[in-house]
């Protein structure tokens, strides 16, 4: 127990004068490199691909990343407390199936469907959190288990089939409920913004959720304490922070946001498609991790997460317009993620100090 | 004249600005157990790491039986005959393998040992090793099925299988009971008789009394005392380790105010003696004692991290029984934890954010942070404590150790308290920062009771109005810091310690 404390004090950065001069350029590169890269991409695609630089194209990009972006904001919350949520993808698809079940099989209205999904997301997050803080299951394993559990659970009520109006239920009845207009509007309505019918609901939800998460994390004491937990949980605890409660809260935020993503997906599809949402987990985790590199934050943050999601969206949209085949998409996402991780861990001061 | 087994000449080592070893000269003889004592940060661990090839010394020479010894890796040190058993038992054994494999592990790892295991040979070899050490175990048993003492003995057997010239044991009994430790000592007796030089690092006086032929005390990177005349001068060794170089410190003890916290028949550990204590307004009380004397537990009880076994606490006349650290903080009882790197510093935060962590509620309105109020407090405390930085938003890890420690103290001085407990506030801190922190604690002492847990008596003498000595989880001495009878304090610190397995980390 008598580890030499002197060793610990020997960390880089003790000689500010010497390091300062050579740091400025690297600093700038780390801080703005990713944003510069993104603007460069936009200019590049605008010149090369005809039609890229149009409001419709911009909205399409936003729309393509809205749902993964919302999920990624949830992952960000768990990353802030030094956790990880692998169950967001299946929470989203569970929410998709649940909303379809409530609307089509139980024949209830849109409001009930939305509330049921949000409650389910919160409960999933609560269980994740309790598994982690009370039963001390490591975060990756707890949420991996929850992921499997939900993938299976969402198939049981319909014996593994997708939900649509007119389907035959296990008991032989025919489901007669429909996706109500109000619910479908969540996925299909577009707000006017200079141009009629321009901005879809999901983009607005992404921006609002992004703003809320940013405000919560950066401007409130709760967010600050969650960052403290993520950086040194023992220190945060000895400073009087209820570490367990904040960790559970982070997983609940993640679960609720994942279910929001699922609702939007259901409203866009108009049916409870069992096979949709396969890519949600990886895409949103990638967005959150890319977010580390934005503005040299080297830590999870809401602004970076949205930029990360947009970055992928811009890249894919541009490549698609340049007729790159669809099957190269995952490769591109992976490559961006790896580069962003190098930015975060190899170049930043924190990556080096750890 | 016989050549010493190991001789070190002028070993120095620094990490950045921190000089950890300042020219160590030491000889160890074959067939002799040398106990190495030193407070945390004295440089013991670094010295061991130099010997076992983890760190290279910056200057100085080491000879092993007259030949130069400069290990660059731990395995080089082992093959040269310097074998170390580290404090954490599980570094020394692999629990999921059987005893035979553990004993023969280094043999198995050696290149050119063949591809397939010959289990029968391994077991036969392992039995020989075990028999040589009078280790009565079934070598096919899994190590995970053994109790701590047996695991420790297996780890030591593994070390001995290398036929060491020098065996280094780092706190080998820290998780053993007295009975289990005795088995270890019997083993060491046999090794000593066979001519191995043994360097034995421990805080436990009872171990040292039992096993040591010679005591070497370290303090502040130097050898501060070597005791080899029988009977060994244990108190002298402790004094050399804890230091007494301070002459009169000009503390004028201010009149103590009203009692603030009263401890009534508190029992910290099952079986230890109850004690009572009054802490007064404007009073600085230093609590001193060796590792495992119960200081950490007392701090934990005061701060609501643990419940006392029995007894009652009264804070300003009202019953004080905090269930957790938040309740303690709300009652105005703060703990500035020891070991800032793991318990204090939030490495991703800048100075301001590090200071405000416990009191964010006071810097926010409806949960929204008021950055101006936060920064104003940070600026004030930075100035108060003389924290050397470029601005209040410097990253915490751009600061030196002493300044980081000042930030930790600033965190808890930022708000008024009823009781401020500082656990080892001078750990890994340079002289200047030490003085600044001590001065600030003194300047702000009015309005609260202050407890400073220190293991170095110098520090206690320099800062306290009253020095309380703990031993075996109870209070064994209470001295007003005027013409303190140092010899008596040392006797109390050293006191025959019973079987103790004091925890060294806070239970959160």
Distance between the termini of chain A: 21 Å
The helix content of chain A is over 70%
Report mean pLDDT of chain B, rounded to a whole number.
85
Based on secondary structure, the structural category of chain B is: alpha/beta
For the record, the CATH architecture of chain A stands as Orthogonal Bundle
Shape of chain A: globular
Describe the structure in brief.
The complex is a heterodimer of chains A (354) and B (508). With 354 residues, chain A is mainly alpha-helical.
List the topology elements.
The complex is a heterodimer of chains A (354) and B (508).
Chain A: H1 5-9, H2 16-48, H3 55-80, H4 88-105, H5 110-133, H6 139-153, H7 181-188, E1 190-193, E2 195-200, H8 201-219, H9 221-231, H10 233-238, H11 243-269, H12 280-291, H13 302-321, H14 329-347, H15 349-353
Antiparallel strand pairs in A: 1-2
Chain B: E1 6-15, E2 18-28, E3 33-38, H1 44-51, E4 59-64, E5 67-68, H2 74-80, E6 82-85, H3 99-103, H4 105-109, H5 119-132, H6 148-160, E7 166-170, H7 178-193, E8 197-201, H8 205-211, E9 214-219, E10 222-227, H9 234-242, E11 259-267, E12 275-280, E13 283-288, H10 295-302, E14 310-315, E15 318-319, H11 325-330, E16 333-336, H12 340-343, H13 351-356, E17 364-365, E18 368-369, H14 371-385, H15 401-413, E19 419-423, H16 431-443, E20 449-454, H17 457-463, E21 466-471, E22 474-480, H18 486-494
Parallel strand pairs in B: 3-8, 3-9, 6-7, 7-8, 13-20, 13-21, 16-19, 19-20
Antiparallel strand pairs in B: 1-2, 1-4, 4-5, 9-10, 11-12, 11-14, 14-15, 17-18, 21-22
Q: How would you describe the overall organization of this protein?
A:
- The complex is a heterodimer of chains A (about 350) and B (about 500).
- Helix content of chain A is about 70%, strand content about 5%.
- Chain A is mostly helical and about 350 residues long.
- Chain A has a two-stranded antiparallel sheet with strand order 1-2.
- In chain A, a hairpin with a 1-residue loop joins strand 1 and strand 2.
- In chain B, about 50% of the residues are buried.
- A 6-stranded mixed beta sheet of chain B has the order 6-7-8-3-9-10, with helices on both faces. In chain B, strands 16-19-20-13-21-22 form a 6-stranded mixed beta sheet, with helices on both faces. In chain B, strands 2-1-4-5 form a 4-stranded antiparallel beta sheet, covered by helices on one side.
- With about 500 residues, chain B is of the alpha/beta class.
- Chain B folds into 2 domains: about 5-240, P-loop containing nucleotide triphosphate hydrolases (Rossmann fold, 3-Layer(aba) Sandwich); about 260-495, 3-Layer(aba) Sandwich (Rossmann fold).
- The longest helix of chain B has 16 residues, at about 180-195.
- The interface between A and B is large, with 38 and 58 residues.
